[in-house]
């Protein structure tokens, strides 16, 4: 007998997928995006949805469950970390004083990810708020080569970095979710 959960998927067509293709909200049967920024925004949107899909259906204890010691990584920690990261990105493109950290210094985003429903609700709200703020600020700059903020980061570079950050953490979320309940897939 093993403490590891059995691997499973909700998909019925392809057993290694998270969900059936017809039920996947990331599927887009229409034309692909035309421009560079539109393509990057589409990829970012899909990775954001993937992260939320990997977290759905879990309770506060499951979302806060840590991977393996000494790591403090958890799905709830990832939600908090990405909210903090969105705020950092907003600070990168701002000319004003930086907004304060959401969770303090030194891994506060992961360390404070405790198994309480109020923390889960706050993490989802913070992530949505910070994503919306960064998205709104970038929407004012449709030229991917435009340089913003004190460090003059190109919009293109920031968008690529955003996609990379979400993609990397979706990989972590895959493994974390499989450890929690055995669910696997795309």
Core attributes:
mainly alpha, Four Helix Bundle (Hemerythrin (Met), subunit A), 53% helix, MST-like, DinB/YfiT-like, DUF664 domain-containing protein
Number of helices: 6
Main CATH class: Mainly Alpha
Helix-strand pattern: HHHHHEEH
**In the CATH scheme, what's the topology name?**
Four Helix Bundle (Hemerythrin (Met), subunit A)
Poorly predicted regions: none
Named at the architecture level, the CATH assignment is Up-down Bundle
Q: Tell me the radius of gyration.
A: 18 Å
Number of strands: 2
Please give the order of strands in the largest beta sheet: 1-2
Q: What is the CA–CA distance across the termini?
A: 28 Å
Shape, per Cα inertia axes: flat
Largest sheet: 2 strands, antiparallel
| Oligomeric description of these chains | single chain
Mean pLDDT score: 90
CATH H-level superfamily: dinb family like domain
Counting helices, strands and paired strands, the structural category is mainly alpha
Please state roughly what percent of the residues sit in beta strands, choosing from under 5%, 5-15%, 15-25%, 25-35%, 35-45% or over 45%. under 5%
The figure for the number of domains is: 1
The helical percent reads 40-55%
What does this structure look like?
The protein is mainly α. It has one domain (35-181): dinb family like domain (Four Helix Bundle (Hemerythrin (Met), subunit A), Up-down Bundle), CATH 1.20.120.450. It has helices spanning 36-55, 60-64, 75-93, 108-111, 117-139, 155-181; strands at residues 147-148, 153-154. It has a two-stranded antiparallel ribbon with strand order 1-2. The model has no long low-confidence stretch (mean pLDDT 90).
């Amino acid at each position: 007998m093993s403490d590891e959960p059995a691997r499973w998927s909700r998909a019925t067509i392809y057993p290694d997928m998270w969900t059936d293709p017809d039920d996947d909200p990331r599927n887009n049967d229409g034309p692909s995006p035309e421009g560079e920024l539109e393509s990057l925004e589409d990829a970012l949107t899909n990775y954001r949805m993937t992260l939320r899909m990997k977290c759905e259906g879990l309770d506060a204890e499951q979302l806060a469950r840590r991977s393996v010691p000494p790591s403090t990584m958890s799905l709830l920690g990832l939600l908090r970390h990405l909210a903090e990261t969105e705020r950092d990105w907003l600070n990168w493109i701002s000319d004003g004083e930086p907004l304060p950290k959401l969770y303090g210094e030194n891994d506060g985003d992961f360390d404070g990810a405790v198994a309480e429903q109020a923390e889960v609700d706050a993490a989802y709200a913070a992530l949505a708020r910070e994503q919306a703020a960064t998205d709104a600020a970038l929407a004012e700059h449709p030229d991917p080569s435009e340089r913003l903020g004190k460090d003059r980061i190109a919009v293109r570079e920031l968008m690529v970095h955003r996609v990379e950050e979400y993609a990397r953490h979706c990989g972590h979320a895959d493994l974390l979710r499989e450890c929690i309940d055995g669910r696997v897939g795309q």
